[in-house]
Amino acid sequence: MIRAFSFRLRRRILLLSPILAVIIFIFGFGTLSADHSYYNSEAISTSFKSLSDKFDFTYLQNFASGNGPYNRGNLKSATLDQVGYIVEPNNVDFKFINRRNLKGKPAEILKINEERYKEIFKKEITEPKDFDIDTIRPPKEGENYVLANATIIALVRNHESSMIGKSIRQFEKKFNSKFNYPYTFLNDQPFAESFKRRMAKYSNAPMEFVTISPELWNRPDFVDPERQKKEMEIMDKHNIAYAKKESYHNMCRFYSGNFYNVPELQKYRYYWRIEPDVKFYTNIKYDVFKYLEGTKKVYGFTINLYDIQETVKTLWPETLNFLNQKDNYKYVNVNGAHQWLLENLQNPQINKMTGGYSTCHFWSNFEIADMDFFRGEAYNEWFKYLDSTGKFYYERWGDAPIHSMGLALFADKKQIHWFRDIGYFHDPYYNCPRNPETQLCETSKFSKWEHLADQNCMVNYIDNVMDDLDAIY
Questions:
Q1: Within a 10 A sphere around the Cβ of 271, how many other Cβ atoms?
Q2: How far, in Å, CA of 440 to CA of 443, rounded?
Q3: Closest CA to 391 of 445, 316, 293
């Protein structure tokens, strides 16, 4: 009995001796360094790693299987649970963390969020507080005012002259007549002279009419037309709007990654996108472009909602695939709006279909943004990868979720701005603040149809991204 015990004891000592040697070395090194005022925790950590990597610890229980307490993967899992992301070579992943500790079925979560949305909109707001707005007021007559390097862009067809005219008439009254920022009209077909004459009646601002080149607009050659036709038929059977309309797919791809490459837009940095038949409810008395420029923000939005999950089924998995290739992990901004992309409480059925993506996005028919962000390496490399999959045509990836996902991943969340003070409507959704300069819309109303209330993702953005809701308004 004694001999057997002695043998087991000696065996355990032999097995543990490498670990003891490492510990003795580290404590000796630390003591020596401390005595000589050269103590360096980073050096100790590096030394420990380099030494420990030389020993075989597989004799420890469950180490080889990766299921035990010594599994380094557990540390990564803990990081994912604590901060919601892991960003390292070939190991990029994200996880939603329910920091509000919301509990209940989706209908109950929706009710909580609806009440919070209404409560938020009860507060009367004016203009942003994080910049000296008085320095960017409309210039007085004769005053020398230097505009930002910006343009108003509108992608329209000749037959939409009446609808875009209505939008411009309101836009001029509420904002641009005070500044005269130039317009850039875009079309994949040449603009008719009658269209140009009509637009000139709505504004005194400079106007440029651009025909988009086929290289930037048309379906790329690598897309398989037979597969495209098959996938479009499937989407059409599922009642996906514009599923079989190739021009719509072209538009989504163009606005996702090609619009900022239009030669006539190269001279500009900022843009405000407007569309036909939208409404502006707020008298804007400051230069929004100079506000973005002065605060170093890259994107501004008004409406935040969920998308049709069938249109972006593989957008998130493909994005993770991209981020886990080569050194693409470096593009992720760890202070990004990741959690908003992953929220899974209000519409959890969406996340199941999309591989984890909430489909929450900024509605891009209104966006004021910095094209240099989209021209940057991170966004461009990601877009080129997405484009190579052909899924702007095999699925119906829209520019709104593409812009939104790119911003949430590659920009600091503080660089994204909710233009809470600008009243806006694009059928059927509103942004209607309680604001003395806002008229003719119902405060806190999200949609003209009540059954669309569950499509509102604004509260999820506020609670999962914005550090201090009252810091700006």
A1: 22
A2: 9
A3: 316
CA distances from 83 to 103, 339, 352 (A): 20, 10, 22
CA distances from 294 to 133, 407, 415 (A): 10, 19, 11
Number of other CB atoms surrounding residue 294 within 10 Å: 17
Sort strands 367-370 and 299-301 into parallel, antiparallel or unpaired: antiparallel
Distance of alpha carbon 389 from alpha carbon 214, whole angstroms: 20
Cα gap 1→4, rounded to integer Å: 5
> At which residue do the structure tokens 């929706």 appear?
110
3 state SS of 431: strand
The order of strands in the sheet holding 279-280 is 279-280, 424-426, 429-431
Q: Residue 41: exposed, middle, or buried by beta-carbon count in 10 A (0-12, 13-18, 19+)?
A: exposed
From the list 461, 419, 447, 444, the residue with the least C-alpha distance to 122 is 444
At 400, list the tokens: 């709104």
pLDDT score of 45 more than 90: no
| CB-based contact 424:278 (threshold 8 Å) | yes
Stretch 94-116: mean pLDDT, rounded?
Answer: 97
CATH 3.90.550.10 spans which residues of the chain?
A: 106-471
In sign, the C-alpha dihedral spanning 416, 419, 425, 429 is positive
CA-nearest of 462, 427, 181 to 339 is 462
Tokens 């994005």: give the residue: 319
Is the pLDDT at 79 greater than 90, yes or no? no
Model-level pTM? 0.84
Structure tokens at 121: 């909109």
CB burial readout 176-208, b (16+ within 10 A) else e: bebbbbbbbbbbbeebeeebeebbeebbebebe
Torsion angle, CA of 350/352/354/359, rounded to 10 degrees? 30
Cβ atoms of 133 and 291 closer than 8 Å: yes
Catalytically annotated residues:
367
What string of DSSP letters covers 42-72? HHHHHHHHHHHTTS--TTSTTTTTT-STT-H
Quick one: tokens of 357? 């993506």
pLDDT tens-digit profile of 9-18? 344 444 444 4
Query: Is the preceding peptide bond at 428 cis, omega within 30 degrees of 0?
Result: yes
Which alpha helices (H) appear in 411-468, and where do they start and end?
A: 458-464
Report the relative pairing of strands 150-155 and 270-273 from DSSP bridges.
parallel
**pLDDT band at 142; cut points 50, 70, 90:** confident
Q: Give the SS3 label for residue 84.
A: coil
CA distances for 366 relative to 153, 267, 361, 369, angstroms: 11, 21, 12, 10
Domain covering 106-471: architecture: Alpha-Beta Complex (3.90)
309 pLDDT more than 90: yes
